[in-house]
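Key idea: predict the complex, not the pieces.
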Amino acid sequence: MRRSNVVRENLTAWIFLLPSLIFLVMFTLYPILSTFISSFYKSDLSTIEPIFIGFDNYAIMMKDEVFRKAFINNIWFTIGTVPTSVLLGLLLAILVNRTFVGKVMSRVFFFYPVVIPMVAVSFIWLFFYTPDYGMINSILKLIGFEELNLLGNSGTALLSIIIMVIWKEAGFFMIFYLAALQNIPKDLIEAARIDGASKWRQFRSVIFPLLMPTTLFSIIIATTNAFKTVDQLVVMTQGGPNNASNLLLYYIYENTFRFMDYGRAATVTVIVLMIMVSIAAIQFFAADKKIHYS
Amino acid sequence: MKRIPILLSVIVLMFGILAGCSSSTSERSNEADSNSETIDLTWYYPVNVGGTITEVIDKYAKDFNHGGIKVNGKNVTVTPVYSGNYDETMTKVQTAIKNGKSPDLSVQLSVDLFQIKNSIIPLDDFIKNDYEAQEMVGDFFPGFMKNAQTDGKTWSIPFQRSTVILYYNKDMFKEAGLDPETPPTTWEEVIEYGKKLTKKGQWGIELPATISGYWIYQALYLQNSDSNMMSDDGKEVYLNTDEAKEALQYWVDLNNKHKIMPEGVLDWSTVPTDFIEGKTAMMLTTTGNLTNVKNNANFDFGVAFLPGNKRVATPTGGGNFYIFKDTSEERQQAAFEFIKWITEPTRAAEWSMNTGYIATRQSSYETEALKEYVGAFPQAKVAMEQIEFANKEISVYEQGKIQKIIHDALQAAINGADVNETLDKAQAEAEATLKAYQ
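Result:
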């Protein structure tokens, strides 16, 4: 009787888990496995039936100039967008967490870039960055700069895209920080104040540590976004000029859908997957220990 | 014990839904075959220009389905499937073929030929025994047939075609003391006119270098050389010839040396806006922008043949009809009948007026409707007349990779890299890419 109860309980649990398990296997585990397998095959327009070539795809990738460029760009892109948009999100949250006239308006103002689709944002910014009549150039001209073709120069294309992405994402992290700020018990801050802590000290020793779970969460989201959103490249630069703004996912997209080089695309996908898993692992296992969950 | 049956039924339901997802698609394709009275064709088509194109297509399909065209005594009908832009259409067609659900026919870029050659059929057998079809093929502008033919066979039928043309702002020409009816006809004149037209806040000319920038570059290449940038069999490219280097140097010099073009890489989609906004006096872009410029420019504009150098030349562009291999002979014949129907002169004329593409058939320009349209809007005629000087658009095996190599070289040179080295490197990369086909 007892044994059958355990079996039944386990069975019930499995049955409840089954729907999500099916989807997880179908849409996550199976594609990962099949990508992994494809990365060992030569499968492009010139090979009608895929040929097994072991690690050759990986060796080719290591030598591929465009891949290396995209890889380095992606590192700069991550460094450029992650700390800045998270920090900006925190500052905005602190700014709108006080009571002042137009509080709601400014919250909406900071948050609205988040709700616009990336493709639409990219199209708007494509024209912002246009020489002559683009908004950014008009401002630059006002403060005495030369006219610049920001997206059309290797030196400025990636930076221009980074700035746009920060603008787009900061509001998203602001919302999380805002919620976290409002969850901090008032008595803790009061206690700190009675102890004579300055505003900065209050922030450093009480508020900031309590915001750490949100910070970890934001950094993970921002980092994954740095690898998984490339809509802006499709609209704005197509990775150009001469790969100056190319990123790994766009490289995968081009290899799959434009070049139909499935073997190479699978190889880069596996590499990106490895990067993502290791970043997540570092963040969860190393950073997690230092974080105080209240 | 009561709960288990409920849970089980939930599971059964889940599997039912999943199974339903997969079976509903396979049933659809059998449907047409089981009903022996009709042949229902699936037609993948892209939309690459603005306007209400889907409505026009649906109207065509409706007309055709009531037209009573028969193959082997069976009625032929067509179901148009909107498949995104050209790139997306390619993806969808490839995916469909991989999964054994090949469409019957599609409209894809004329230069996609070598990428899909394994999945399509040559059309010579249909043309050989069919007087009407021979007449049709003979009536297309010969320039548009060039990309459709290789190894002595015809692989596709022109549908929506374009070329590169020169757009210029007549008001700015007058202002600069130039005759608005004589646009530049040579490379030197472009520079000469451009210098007069350039002033603060206004540029002489713009050439886009993204999206289809390789195509604009090919126009310069053709103007500077007697031969094309690739072999007819699609297995070789010639990117670092002296003529190629001169053509690229000319492009780069428009900014560096002559200062008549903005600095840096110019975007494909912002160039027409620059022209409409009056930021540039001339631009080179596709005839496909004609309707856009016509509707949005609040000044008098002209279009003209591309200025030539050693010769006057332009590559063609745009989409053709392809018929796929993995269907029955009967369905292929039906698809061909549909192509014949939709490319009839009056329909080609109508399609041209609706989209801004060049009407593909010479006799279209003798139809009343198109005569009237061209009379009121003579700019539409220039594009047609230029077809005489049209050459094959670059079309090779590994089309995507080669296009990217050309774009990278073009953009690198615009950003200051040495033209010689850049094109030598591009040629080496292209040769490595095409090695598998030698």
